[in-house]
Amino acid sequence: MKHEAVSTHSPEHLKKVEINALGFWIYLMSDLVIFSILFTTFVVLGHNYAGSAGPGELFSLPYLFVETLLLLISSVVYGTGMVALQDNKSKTVLKALGITFLLGAGFVLMEIYEFYDLIAAGHTPRQSGFLSAFFTIVGTHGAHVSFGLLWMLIMMYQVKTRGLTLGVCSRLMQLSLFWHFLDIVWVGVFTVVYLAGVV
Amino acid sequence: MFGRLTAEAFYHDALQMSAVYGTLFGGVVLFCMITYFKKWAWLWKEWLTSVDHKKIGIMYTIMGLVMLLRGFADGMFMRTQQAIALGQNHGFLTPDHFAQFFSAHGTMMLLFVLMPIFVGMMNIIIPLQIGARDVAFPLLNSISLWLTFTAVSLIMISLGIGDFSISGWTGLAPLFEKTYTPDSGVDYWMWAIQLGGIGTTLTGINFIATILKMRAPGMTLMRMPLFTWTALTTSVLIVLAFPVLTGGLFLLTMDRYLGMHFFTNDLGGNMMLWTNVFWMWGHPEVYILVLPAFGIYSEVVATFSRKGLFGYTSLVYATAVIMFLSFIVWLHHFFTMGNAPSVNIFFGITTMMIAIPTGVKVFDWLMTMYKGRITLSVPMYWTIGFFILFVLGGMTGVLMAVPPADFVVHNSLFLVAHFHNVLIPGAIFGYFAGINYWFPKAFGFKLDEKWGRRSFWGWTVGFVLAFGPLYVFGFMGMPRRISHYTNPHWQPWLILAWIGMALIGLGIFSMIIQFVVSIINREKLRDETGDPWDGRTLEWMTSSPPAEYNFAVIPEVTGLDAFWEMKKNRTVSPEDFKYSSIAMPANRPHGFVIGMLATTFGFAMIWYMWWLAVVSLIGIIVAVISISFSEHIEFIIPAEEVQETEEKYFEKLIKASV
Q1: What pLDDT does B40 receive?
Q2: What residues contact residue B71 under an 8 Å CB cut-off, 6+ apart?
Q3: CATH number of A2-43+60-198
């Protein structure tokens, strides 16, 4: 028996990539269940202002429009990266990952600033059930995006040092799923939390 | 430095201290023995870092059985307290301590006894049953194991350092909020099930992928053995239900650590939100526990009746229907808490509907036995015991599914009797049947029959005596979870229940003896064929214990009961002996390391040692990232070595069958 690192494109390894993709899909579905609990909680507690401010006073839709655009465009850019992956162009992939990262980081920074602004004005999550639910659902999504950014950094490093090996491609595919997934969840957050609240 | 951990946390009353010293003593003895026999390197290489599904399964099962002892001890203390605490006599437990006992008992029995045992059996058997060499994600499997270990460790630590929760295994809003229970108890409960629950979710993902993607050629979905089917449905339930618990506990964490208002009774919190979220997980959870047991009964009944399962297709559909229905009945846990009658009626009807597929199953099993050539071996004892007792428990469940009837017995001991009646004969009996049935597969020798039967009788008679009286109390109006009472009519029944518990204790004791006697007589009980029961499914095709790679040549499946068919119809061809080299996943320490870091993280969060929590969390993230930098770590078993192993097995097989 000897240990060796194998990274060939044998049928077994291709099958492994396929199984990994399925496993990742199932993970995403389980994560979606967590988000659905957060959504449910928000809907249940969404009007419990307990005497403090409600969504109309707190949210600015133009600001959120920019924030949302950043995330949606980042998803499109990631998509172009995946097209480049098909053509085996590692430089274009790197470029796309870099731009996606910047857009994603912009989204997270805008969100942090929004939180900072709210807390500085005294609208902390301790004020009411509504604010607890708001900070938790938006914060959980933001934490997911931040983990995605960390993952993206690591993938950029791996594309650079290893090139587009089967393992790297498989992980890029999974990150792509993850990133689009967060996009879809954000559309839900934007609609249920912000839009429905302000309108 | 140590957060809120002070010397006071280590101080307990004499009773608890003796339990702490006992546990510590056991740990020290184990440590010394491993050191004396110089087994540390072996333990590390062969077990702690193992990604082999069979070894992971064995570790899971042992963990569950060890925790059974503690869960039972807690139950025994409660029974003893209730048997004596009448009138002037206040027993030996304070109400607060009693509350910790019932909270710990429930949490442990469901999550750290039943879950590890069936996950362990799934691990050992599923890859063998579907003709695979391992699970889909072997390293993830190891991570799941060690996260479960994390949870168990935290519960054990709570015995010695600090307290355990007093708000029941289900949690009770707003009692579990920081305002009312500021000490470490609720935090132990919360972090233990949170971290363990993540491990369980990962197990669910792993087994769905394994069963859907790694079956041997020819094994279509409707040719899967029933245990595989129940494992699949249970995994689906896990993946859909456990994140609900994760989400709910996360909200509670926000409440307790950041002062938010999700389940509080002020500033816009909603206490019923917790109850709903908890039971949205909690009800599927009981089916997560009982479905694998149904799978085991199916395997056992078919094998020991020497007949194919009666109504295989209906059993599969019944399993799937139960899986579906289990998600739309959660509200029957709180009919009395102010829902509109129409809502209660809906959930009452869905609850009653579950009895239909379950009834289908019972009839299928009985019809399988009908005109079969039945061998009354120990697994069959457990199965028959299950039929009789479980049907009783199921009927009391249907009774409580009627909302007005539930109002009468809600929160009484009737309910306690009911869920013990479905979980002990329903789940635990099945797991014991499975342990007796598959033990020879995992270890290469059978378990002693005589002590196995004694264990069965101890459990069965004990169960009837311990929980039969509780049904009576329910009607007499005795509430659950009380540490003291003034009604003298209850005491004789409580003493009878105590005797029942003692008999269950004898059952557990007989099981320990059964293991010891079997290990001593292992040469006599040795099974060289790999197929001691004349089995029907693929796991019996391999040697016992199976080689690391399970199947030298992946079998071709042509029908239901694949191995039975092979034994009856198939002749051996030279193709069967064409060995090629096999790549297997190499052992890796990541699972163990992540588990230890998660334990540290949990402990640090419970005691507010923020620096340690941050350090261990970063450690976990680094460990996870490092996995992605070591892709495809495999080792190759050369064809010659495979051939050598297989030939040795064939020699033994021929010798045994002559």
Answers
A1: 94
A2: B105, B108, B109, B112, B113
A3: 1.20.120.80
From chain A, the residues in CB contact with B288 under 8 A are none
User: Side chain identity at A148, as an amino acid letter?
Assistant: G
Of the residues B49, B61, B103, B141, only one is catalytic, namely B141
Which residues in chain B have their CB less than 8 angstroms from residue A129's CB?
Answer: 261-262, 267-270
Interface of A with B in 85-104 (CB under 8 A): none
Q: How many angstroms separate the CA atoms of B201 and B137, rounded?
A: 13
With vertex at residue A54, the alpha carbon angle to CA A50 and CA A56, rounded to the nearest 5 degrees, is 165
Catalytic one among B203, B246, B351, B550? Answer: B203
Average pLDDT rounded to a whole number, residues B508-531: 95
Under the phi-then-psi rule, with left for phi > 0, alpha for psi from -120 to 50, and beta for the rest, what region is B550? left
Dig out the tokens for A131 from the structure.
């604010």
Q: Are A44 and B270 in contact (CB under 8 A)?
A: yes
Q: Which of B278, B287, B386, B649 is catalytic?
A: B287
Write the ipTM: 0.94
Q: Chain A residue closest to B211 (CA)? A: A19
Contact B135, B52 (CB under 8 A): no
User: In this structure, what token pair is assigned to residue B87?
Assistant: 């009138």
Tell me: pLDDT of B131 over 90.
Answer: yes
Smallest CA-to-CA distance from A133 within A33, A40, A16 is with A40
Question: In this predicted structure, what is the pLDDT of residue B654?
Answer: 86
Q: Which of B11-15, B199-203, B313-317, B515-519 has the lowest mean pLDDT?
A: B11-15
- Close Cβ partners of B421 (under 8 Å, ≥ 6 residues apart): B389, B390, B392, B393, B396, B467
CB-hemisphere CA count at 13 Å for B642?
Answer: 19
Nearest CB to A23; choose among B137, B254, B273: B137
Are the C-beta atoms of B166 and B225 separated by less than 8 Å? no
The set of residues, in sequence order, having a beta carbon less than 8 Å from that of B551 and lying 6+ positions away, is B131, B132, B133, B216, B541, B542
B267 contact partners, CB below 8 Å, separation of at least 6: A48, A50, A126, A127, A128, A129, B261
Cβ atoms of residues B634 and B584 within 8 Å:
yes
- In three-state secondary structure terms, B633 is strand
Is the pLDDT reported for residue A6 higher than 60?
Answer: no
- Secondary structure tally for chain B: helices H, strands E: 21, 2
Distance, in Å, from the CA atom of A117 to the CA atom of A63, rounded to the nearest integer, reads: 12
Interface test with A, best of B274, B632, B644 (most A CBs within 10 A): B632
The length of chain A, given as a count of residues: 199
Q: How confident is the model at residue B658 (pLDDT cuts 50, 70, 90)?
A: low
Mean pLDDT of the B275-301 span: 97
Burial of B627 (0-12, 13-18, 19+ CB in 10 A): middle
